[in-house]
Amino acid sequence: MKYTPMTPAPADADARKAIKPVICYSPETLPAVDTAMIDRARASMEKIDTVIVPPREAECFHVPAGHFFRIISSEGPQVGDLNLWNYDNPEERFYSGKTRALHGTHISTGDRMWSTIPYLRPMVTVTHDTLDWYGWDEFGGSVHDVIGTRCDPYTNYLLHQDHYHHCCHSNLTRAFGKHFGDYAKGELLVHDVMNVFMCTGFTLDTHQYFMKASPVRPGDYIEFFAEMNILGGLSACPGGDCSSEHSSDEAACYPLVVEVYRPDPATLEGWEAPAINGYDRSHGIKP
Ligand SMILES: [Zn+2]
Fold first, then answer.
1. CB contact at 8 A, 79 and 242
2. 85, part of any domain
3. How far is the CA of 44 from the centre of ligand 1 (A)?
4. Range of the domain at 122
5. How many angstroms separate the alpha carbon of residue 237 from the centre of ligand 1?
6. CA of 130 to the centre of ligand 1 (A)
7. Ligand 1: distance of its center to the CA of 127 in Å?
8. 274 CA to middle of ligand 1, Å?
């Protein structure tokens, strides 16, 4: 709140504000991650594909269900904007808002990235994160957020009346549009991202969204298990390490690397791709 309230506080204001919060969604009630299976599978996995994402560009990559992928920092500190689609039905895509409600503002090992309604099921599970040591800093910042959207040319135009074509939204639109075969429709399926390696938070006083230089260094990676057939889109953000600005060619930018790994199928015994959400979709409407 950045203005002076016009409404006088009621007599019981302190009592109302002192009520303790409750967690909206208890993650303990979600289906558990089979960590023993993940450990077995990780120990057996072999690299089958590598995709290089050039600076200020995006690339798509395919990860079959039951495979792993890593997003790796190379050459210098660089933030990535990650989109996920169901490879077989791209209308099912990553749901940033619900993932945030279920797991919090930033995700790490053991958290899932969930898909949009009406599917609402795990798309991927985070299985390793070399930046998990970071935790929270004194400013309220952390790494790998699901609170940002993606830098986009529309907001940039709103603020600067400038046509910049290498925002993550445009990079993802080009990469996904090329894969999808339709740039205009493809743009509509680009969605709010997981900000890989980005260090963000809300300021402690005014609760405004902030970014700061990413702590990522070459060799750091975040790793995921694909719970379904995944088409990923990764943009190497024009903001570079996001220490100053994005939506321009000013920041130093570096490539990101995606590696796809196949585990020994025998290690996946007991794992099943999650079914589509079980809600009956009647919404109480009588036939
Ligand atoms: Zn960006």
1. yes
2. yes
3. 34
4. 53-265
5. 4
6. 22
7. 24
8. 30
Q: Report CA(25)–ligand 1 centroid distance (Å).
A: 29
In a domain, 78, yes or no: yes
Q: What percent of the residues of the chain are helix, what percent strand, and what percent coil, each to the nearest 5?
A: 20, 30, 50
Q: How far is the CA of 31 from the centre of ligand 1 (A)?
A: 32
Measure 246 CA to ligand 1 centroid, in angstroms. 6
User: Domain total for the chain?
Assistant: 1
Q: Are 232 and 83 in contact (CB under 8 A)?
A: yes
| pLDDT digits 0-9 by tens, 266-277 | 999 989 999 999
97, 100, 80, 63: which is closest to 261 by C-alpha? 63
In a domain, 252, yes or no: yes
Determine the Cα–Cα distance for residues 148 and 106; give it in Å rounded to an integer: 10
pLDDT band for position 247 (50/70/90)? low
The SS3 call for residue 184 is: helix
182-192 pLDDT per residue, tens: 999 999 999 99
